[in-house]
Amino acid sequence: MTMKIKADLVETLGIEASNAQPNECCGILFGENETITHIQPTQNVHPAPATHFEIEPAALIAAHKAEREGGPKIVGYYHSHPKGPPEPSRTDQASAAGDGKIWAIIGRGEIRFWLDQPDGFKPLSYSVTDP
């Protein structure tokens, strides 16, 4: 699977990660099929935000409720690794649901996308499209 994401969203993810330093940023990815159409930054409410992330529960619940009511489809989540590579950490792997959602991880000035499958994360190829 090759997913698509708009160039402005890639830029926004990088800005979110930079602005959150030294903590991890996090948020929700929305889209259709293999295309990410927009993102929703959320507060990282984890007690150790420099090394972990937890999407603010009220934002996540509201996104799921909106989706059920015909709103944008949640295709995945994103977070940053302020001091690490853009690949799933042991913590990420332990907390993953194996639900087929896309995870975008930003680290070391790069963004990589992963598919959260029951047997672990699989790297996703992607193309950047014009806005």
TrEMBL record:
- Endpoints of the signal sequence: none
Q: Does the keyword Methyltransferase apply?
A: no
Ranges for the region named Disordered are: 72-96
InterPro entries from the UniProt entry: JAB_dom_prok, JAMM/MPN+_dom, MPN, VirAsm_ModProt
UniProt key word Cell wall biogenesis/degradation: no
Molecular function terms from GO: metalloexopeptidase activity; zinc ion binding
Any GO BP annotation: proteolysis
> Which UniProt keywords are listed?
Hydrolase, Metal-binding, Metalloprotease, Protease, Zinc
Q: Which Pfam families match?
A: Prok-JAB (PF14464)
List each copy of the MPN domain by range: 3-131
The family database entries (Gene3D superfamilies) matched by this protein are listed as: Cytidine Deaminase, domain 2 (3.40.140.10)
Task: Please give the name of this protein.
Answer: Peptidase
Organism source for this protein? Answer: Pontixanthobacter aquaemixtae
